[in-house]
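Before we proceed, please read the two lines closing this message. Let me know whether the structure tokens fit the sequence:

…
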Amino acid sequence: MTTKDRIRFISIGFIIWAAATATYRIMGSVFFESSMAGYWLNVVVTGGLYAAVSLGLMQWQNIERSDWLQGALCLALPGMLSEIPLLAGFSSLMSNMQPETAGRYAAFLFSGYSTLLGAAWLLSTKARSRSISEM
């Protein structure tokens, strides 16, 4: 994975974070406060989509599968780091949601990021072990 790839994925990760945060800023109460079933559906669907789109992007950009964990980190870190001040000031920054929703929102974030990083780690490790066994 080249430095140019890393910079591109960090930039894409920031754009994804900004778009998703803006969406949840406007409509977050629908996703996080309407019902537990709706919340868990959002957790599962969004985590799966985030991983599928991110891994598909790396495949489309011809990133070696053994580098997918590195690519996933570049995509995830901008959002993970940007969420720190957002969660610290949740009640004022995400004013469309109740302050108590911060825990659900944080759990949702952990789920999405860990799904992406876990999938990338598994596929990257599998690719590395396959290349070692071919030696």
